[in-house]
Amino acid sequence: MMIGQFVTSKAGHDKGTLYVVTAEEGDFVYLCDGRLKPVEAPKKKRRKHIQPINAMVEEELRERLASGGRVRDEEIRYAVRLKAEERKSAGMTEMEEMYVKK
User: Fold this and answer.
1) Per-residue pLDDT of the chain (102 residues; tens, 9 = 90+)
2) Of 6, 37, 79, 95, which is the most exposed, with the fewest CB atoms less than 10 Å away?
3) pTM of the full predicted structure?
4) How many CB atoms are closer than 10 A to CB 4?
5) Which residues of 70-89 are buried (b: 16+ CB within 10 A; e: fewer)?
6) Largest CA distance in the chain
C-alpha cells in the first residue's frame, strides 16, 4: 500500500515533481501536491511513471488519507515542502525547488 508515500514523477510534463500518493486504483495512483494538484482534483498517473521515495507523511495524516478522512491542501503542501527541504541538501530537481521557501 502506497497511500501517504512521497513519490516523484518519472514521465510527462511534470517530470521530477514531488507528490504524495492519496489513493490507489489498480495500476493507477492518485497524486497530490496541495498546490497545483489539490486533494479534490488529484493527478491520476500509472505506477510505472512514478518513482517512490523511501519516506511517508506523518502517521496521523497517512491514516486520514487511507480512511478517506478530511485532508486539507495546506497539510499536503506542508508535508511536501518539508520533504523538498530535506532533499535539498542531497540535491534536487528544479520542480522540487519551487516548493522550498526562498
Assistant:
1) 789 999 999 988 889 899 999 999 999 999 999 999 999 999 999 999 999 998 899 999 999 999 988 999 999 999 999 998 888 776 655 555 556 554
2) 95
3) 0.83
4) 20
5) ebeeebbbbbbbebbeebee
6) 38
Q: What length is written for the chain?
A: 102
Domains of the chain listed by start with CATH number: 5-92 (2.30.30)
The conformation of residue 20, written as its DSSP 8-state character, comes to E
Amino acid (one-letter) located at 45: K
> CA–CA separation, 93 vs 61, rounded Å?
25
For every residue of 30-92, DSSP letters joined together read: EEE-SSSS-TTSPEEEEGGGEEEEEEE--HHHHHHHHHT----HHHHHHHHHHHHHHHHTT--
